[in-house]
Amino acid sequence: MESHLEYGTRAPMKAQPPHRTPATAPRTAPPPSPVERFRRGEDPEWHWLEERDDARVQAFLEATNEESQAWMSPLESLVERLYHGHLARRELAVHGLRTALDHYTYWSETAADADYPVWWRHPNGSPEEASIFLDLQARATAEHHYLELGDMALSPDERWLAWTEDTSGDERFSLYLKALPHGEPRLVLEEIGPELTWAEDNTTLLYTRYDATQRPDSIWRLPLGEGQIGEPSLVLREDDPEFWLGLGKTRSRQWLVLESASKDTSECHLLPALVPQQAPRCFRPREKGVEYGLEHRPGHFYILHNRNAPHFRLDVAEEGDLTPWQPLIDHRHDTTLEDVEAFEWGLAITERDHDEAQVRIRIIEFDAHHDARRDERLPLPESPCSVMLGDVPHFDSRRLRLREESFVMPVRWLEHDLDNDERLVLKSQPIHGNLQPADLCNERIWARAHDGERIPVSVVMRADLAGHPLPTLLYGYGAYGEVLDPWFSVARLELLARGVAFAVAHVRGGGDRGEPWYLAGKLEHKENSFRDFLAARNALVEKGFSDGERIAAYGASAGGLLVGASLNLAPEAFCAAVLDVPFVDVLRTMENPDLPLTTAEYTEWGNPDEADARKRIRAYSPLDNLSPQPYPALFLQGSWHDSRVPYWEPAKLYARLTEMGTARGPILLRTDMAAGHGGASGRFKAWHDNARQDAFILWALGLADKEP
User: Fold this and answer.
1) Is 677 noted as a catalytic residue in this protein?
2) pLDDT digits over 487-529, tens only?
3) Residue 303, strand partner residues
4) Helix orientation angle between 683-700 and 76-89, rounded to the nearest 10 degrees
5) Considering the entire predicted model, what is its pTM?
6) How much is the pLDDT for 29?
7) Which of 472, 630, 492, 467 shows the shortest CA–CA distance to 550?
8) Rounded to whole angstroms, how far apart are CA atoms 214 and 642?
9) What is the pLDDT of residues 456-476, one digit of tens each?
């Protein structure tokens, strides 16, 4: 699923619904609201909504869905125009890039009317016809209303296909195996994690299992014989509730890497990929606050770590002696090392410049003595932009695949030849309709935060409207070190075409300016995130980009916390806000170690068993800081099967704000009863849900009747 969702101050006033009652209409008492119907006087905090098995809970959510649908009904024609406008701008039939493995070439195709892709393969150098080996569209249509692919893994000899899928949205996956080319899918395991990795013996598949809190706490081997599936055996178990297990394989195909990691500490274990029955060997025991990751070239391991290097450094160790680490790239104060990929010829390294808030890919080629004979950074199409290394399965490949995009440049895939530095565009996302990328412009401005820090803010708009204060949608996230590098959105064009500016606040708590930026917005520094978001909003007005009376905010998941806390600090700063699966009941969630994610996130938010941490969380948790203030119009979205942010968090926010009755506009709650944290799995339903949110935003910005 996409990590990015499609996504002020109006003068104090009572916001009106999108239609007015004629003066001659008879006056009748409005029906009781869901809050009035389901009020429990003994529970002023509405915690009873957490009782999933209580029939009143589903009745409450169904009633709020009916209420929001009734309020939105005058906007349904706008929703449909936005939805069909989006479809008209997009190439609906999608053909994925072809990737050649040892024996077959693989690609996906999504039909113009399909929600899910079909996966094909063709034997390399053979006149045989291509064949389908996994049809997700057929599986979704025949069996499930919801379908999310967790992972898909081919055995090294390409004779077995394994995949995990979630059919409810709760992120509990089932494992299927299929003998290629024509074997029937076999359900092997249920209620496991999504990740899969094959050993190089072609008969051993590794996967993760959950504990009671849905934490991947163990890694298991599944042996395969000639058409037979053996009994799983335990490989590694992690007993510390703050650590999760993950698994992978080096591109050299010599080592399986099993990683145990918390939010600030990690530890890697190694298994020989050809002999996965061996016991795993710990590469280096965990050290509190030290994160490290591994890559491998024959003879050497490369260690990306932050031991005495908060922005990370790269060391190298001899494969036969892992103890001494020799420096390869030293720690730098202006750059964070984010990732390293090893090839036969050397390394591709992802670096982030703190001052520019820009990512780059650096190429280092080694000679036979392990000395660098080439060290340079690949060119960028523009700045700011996103650039990342694509799928390059072969260890000896000298042709790199790159994925590039920006706020005004649709996604394109390139092949960069290291031998001659020539670049070939493999594929570009086509855009149809009357608003083309050339008609857009974007700028990077800098806001001044409460403590003097400079906060990057990105703005994209129609070029012909630049220089005028525009109604604006401001987006933010600000947690876990997640980076909001520029991304192109087809759906966003519907807003831009109607004169809306789209802005991104790159607040502290994210990773936009490297590791220090993340550390400055977590734990005891979390309030910086909220202050930065409001500073970004004010800078947009002060620098003439935004109409101060028409700014809406958008936040999803931890971004919902960002927006919710900002609204408590300055409720009149925005005319409306969309909070999608918002993490707003922070203190109560962190007090419950039985919930998924809680114990693993003590290092992100703090452990409320500690008095100082509890005080800090209590001071900003949105539900714990509501007061009778003029909150803006709100669209709250939840999902019944969400295991990350339970449905009751937006539901309780809706109930308490509605009961308070001081908002300047409507408080709407919509709960998807058939989805999880990422929303709908089918692309058409997801796009329609997005159009509904955009219709609410356009109404709040006074543009419901504006056509592109």
Assistant:
1) yes
2) 999 999 999 999 999 999 999 999 999 999 999 999 999 999 9
3) 294, 315
4) 120
5) 0.93
6) 52
7) 472
8) 12
9) 999 999 999 999 999 999 999
In whole angstroms, give the CA distance from residue 351 to residue 150.
28
Q: How confident is the model at residue 597 (pLDDT cuts 50, 70, 90)?
A: confident
Catalytic residue selected from 296, 354, 677, 688:
677
Q: Which of these is catalytic: 218, 262, 557, 681?
A: 557
Residue 40 has pLDDT above 80, yes or no: no
Whole-number Å distance between alpha carbons of 645 and 676: 9
Q: What does the alpha-carbon distance between residue 273 and residue 199 come to, in Å, rounded to a whole number?
A: 5
CB-neighbour burial class of residue 707 (10 A; exposed 0-12, middle 13-18, buried 19+): exposed
Query: CATH class for domain 48-88+433-700?
Result: alpha beta
Indicate the helix (H) or strand (E) that contains 84: helix 76-89
- Please tell me the distance from the alpha carbon of residue 699 to that of residue 16, in angstroms, as a whole number: 10
Dihedral sign of CA atoms 671, 675, 678, 680 in order:
negative
**Angle subtended by helix axes 55-72 and 648-660, to nearest 10:** 60
For domain 291-430, give the fold. Answer: Methylamine Dehydrogenase; Chain H (2.130.10)
H or E element, residue 502: strand 501-505
Q: How many CA atoms lie within 13 A of 362 on its CB side?
A: 19
Average pLDDT over residues 42-58: 93
What is the C-alpha R_g of the chain? 26
Q: What residues does each domain of the chain span? A: 48-88+433-700, 291-430
Structure tokens at 277: 């029955």
Q: Let me know if 398 is exposed, middle or buried by CB neighbors in 10 A (0-12, 13-18, 19+).
A: middle
- pLDDT at site 5: 31
231-240 CB contacts, 8 Å cutoff, 24+ apart:
232/189, 235/206, 235/271, 235/280, 236/260, 236/269, 236/280
Q: Is-catalytic flag, 642?
A: yes
Residue with token string 């163990």: 218
Q: What is the pLDDT of residue 371?
A: 86
Cα 542–Cα 574–Cα 544 angle in degrees, nearest 5: 20
